[in-house]
Amino acid sequence: MYHYPPSVLNLIKHLSRLPGIGEKTAERLAMHILKMSRRDAEQLSQSILALKESIQICSMCFALSDTETCKICSDPSRDASLVCVVEQPGDMASIEKSGAYPGLYHILQGVLSPMNNIGPDDIHIKELLARIASGKVTEVVLATSTSVEGESTAGFIAEKLRSLPVKVSRIASGVPIGGDLKYVDQVTLRRAMETRHAL
Q: Which of 83, 117, 119, 194 has the greatest count of CB atoms below 10 A from its CB?
């Protein structure tokens, strides 16, 4: 690796700090950037700087936004009585890509994790409860992950919402479409059996 000049090594070092990017991938990316035209390299660097300068957190749902309120929260065609609770902005993006959800979102920016000293005050649960208490929301859809932390976070929120006049639901989980049962893990199969429905 030390046969590269310092400028290349510096780029490789910084690229390898990105999640999921090891040293070999960082090296390939650095070589790709080196082969780019100067214009493309400038556009890449400018888009990174613009991202850091313009992105903020939506004041309503805590999604990434270029404005104080994100496009989804500002869209009058969305069903404001329906709020889907997710862990991270990427989870919201996945649901949006499905095109199956017409309501608004609430992004916790994490999950409860006592092992990592993350409690209810460290994620946006208070803000969710205040939002529900305003009376405009009639259903909360809990769409946290099926990990231990995701399940405990969903359970905690459901318990907190029990005293409020709002329907609380949980997204279904189980065997994926096209999945072969012999390759599905036992926890997923158990969940699929527990949440089965009539046809």
A: 83
